[in-house]
Each structure stands twice: as structure tokens, then as C-alpha cells.
Amino acid sequence: VEGRGKHHRIPISGGEIILIDDAYNANLTSMQAGLSILAAIPLQLPGRRLAVLGEMLELGSQAESHHQQLI
After folding, report:
1. What gap in Å lies between CA 30 and CA 36, rounded to an integer?
2. How many CB atoms are located within 10 Å of the residue 31 CB?
3. Closest to 21 in 3D by CA, of 54, 65, 46
4. What is the C-alpha end-to-end distance of the chain, expressed in Å?
5. For residues 62 and 14, what is the distance between their CA atoms, to the nearest angstrom?
6. pLDDT given for residue 9 in this prediction
7. Has residue 58 got a pLDDT over 90?
8. φ/ψ of residue 60, rounded to 5
9. DSSP the chain
């Protein structure tokens, strides 16, 4: 599925950025899994991990609770 875990390698001066697109139909479980996968990727030093998160939409009455659980 487009937007579900696809890796994009982006060359930059001195190395590359690996962008993981996991934006499709986000929910609490998929966000937690995505962050766990990001944490498990080995770093090549110097390196760092960044997560860019947006809102999880269409969660209904659980929206506030699910967003707070990710903090």
C-alpha cells in the first residue's frame, strides 16, 4: 500500500537520508509500530533518527486519548 513503510534513499552531501513513508491511515498501533521500527534501525555514526508526526485523523471519540499515549 502506498504510504505504508516505503523506504526512500535521498543522497545528501556526505551520506544519505533514509525516509520511511508510513503515513497511510495512521492509528495508535501503526504509530507505535513505526516508532519501534525507527528506534531499531542501526545508525551509521555520525547519525540521528528523526520522526515527523502528523495528526491521526478519523479516530472518533478515542482521538485525544490515542494522541496522548504517543507523548
Report:
1. 10
2. 18
3. 54
4. 27
5. 43
6. 92
7. no
8. 65, -140
9. -TTSSEEEEEEETTEEEEEEE--TT--HHHHHHHHHHHHHSPPPSS-------------GGGHHHHHHHT-
